[in-house]
Amino acid sequence: MEVFNPITKEQLRKMQLIELNILKEVRRVCEKNDIHYFLIGGTLIGAIRHKGFIPWDDDIDIGMSRADFDRFIEVCKTDLGPDFFLQTPETEEKNADYEIARIRLNGTACVQSFRKNTKTHNGFYVEVFPYDNLPKNKITQFFYGKWFPFMKRICAIRMGYTPHPKKFIVFLIVYAAAFISRIIPLKVLHKKMLNYHVKHNRKETDYVFLLSGAWGYEKEKHLRTTISEFTTVPFEDDVFPAPKDYDTFLREQYGDYMQMPKDIESCYNKHRCLELDFGKYN
Questions:
Q1: How deeply is 42 buried, as exposed, middle or buried, from its count of CB atoms within 10 A (0-12, 13-18, 19+)?
Q2: In this structure, is residue 3 part of a structural domain?
Q3: Containing structural domain, residue 65
Q4: What HEC string does 46-71 produce?
């Protein structure tokens, strides 16, 4: 495997187009099984602002309701094409991404710095995020939204991941907690983490959210109705579903999402990819 650091813009574009084909496979599976999905995050910004990928984006993000997500995981076991791999903690023992799924392309690799010491599948991917109920109580929201990412980091460190907290004090606390947590078998923590994100889903709530989204639960929450109605938006050479009120959806999370960053060059390789392998797709 050749090492690319940083990724060139030509390599990035090639990876984007391969990921677009992964998204089309996800669409095939979803349409076959009447599962609703929609573009979110930087992928949705790209669709609205650029009619395709944000030039520096290196992955694709889609969202689903929890009910659709659970069905998607189940049908992928039989309906996903042989070139693809469903990556979840259930399909891969050393996978610490408890709250999402990835559809990976076999025979490719994008090894990110925090995964370099793991034995997980590193193929190019589409990330699938389930939206869960956000409890109404503000204090419960705080602990619910903060505890999970913290414990996820602890479990990840014990599995060989090397997370990079932005603040040194956070780095010390997380690694110290990971060391102390060794008195608890990893399997016990693993089971607790798998069940944690659905603990409020039996209660009626106005808001749903991404439990471990990059922007934190405060900005990743939306009224349930926001992800219940859809439209289609152009993305590269095709169209894909998006929240009908995508403007509100994006402004709640990003503010003025149509504004381009001032330092665009610093946006490239945000996921710290150390190694690329295009395999037969080169």
A1: buried
A2: no
A3: 9-281
A4: HHHHCCCCCCCCCCEEEEEEHHHHHH
CA–CA dist 217, 130 (Å, integer): 13
pLDDT digits (tens, 9 = 90+) for 120-174: 898 999 999 999 998 888 888 888 778 878 887 888 788 777 766 667 777 788 8
Describe the crossing of helices 138-158 and 168-180 by its angle, rounded to 10 degrees: 70
Backbone angles phi, psi at 217, to 5 degrees: -65, -25
* pLDDT tens, position by position, 16-70: 999 999 999 999 999 999 999 999 999 999 999 999 999 999 999 999 999 999 9
State how many domains the chain has. 1
d(CA 6, CA 126) in angstroms, rounded, equals 21
Residue 122 counted as domain residue: yes
Residue 4 lies in a domain: no
